[in-house]
Amino acid sequence: MAFPVGLCPSPERQRFGSRPEEETMGTRVADNPDESRYEIFDGDERAGFVEYHRFRDEIAFLHTEIDPRFGGRGLGGTLARSVLDEARKQELTVLPFCPFIRGWLRKHPEYTDLVPEAQHARFGL
Fold first, then answer.
1. What is the C-alpha separation between 18 and 98, in angstroms, rounded?
2. What is the pLDDT of residues 6-29, one digit of tens each?
3. Reduced to 3 states, what is the DSSP secondary structure of residue 8?
4. pTM, whole model, 2 decimals?
């Protein structure tokens, strides 16, 4: 999917997982495979990211950050939902090493099926 000029400097970045209400608010999530992370943007500013490691049909989420300037606006949750929706779409197994993603999964059990059942105890799910 194409981006408006100037919003995503890397042509390899792909937008995904955004809902219409997020688009109107100027929030979007993009994969930045060169940096092994998904990034969330508010307008043209990167507000945060989640680092990942992909191997075959698995994706391990390692670390999430939201810039304090964007805190308290739910962008972390939007980012988590978007990356997990994308993992589901790509039929990836999720390993939530990141405490934020793990905590979000605990609050949203409809996504725990992405984590292998044998790994639920390991991640406290």
1. 21
2. 233 333 344 444 443 344 358 899
3. coil
4. 0.79
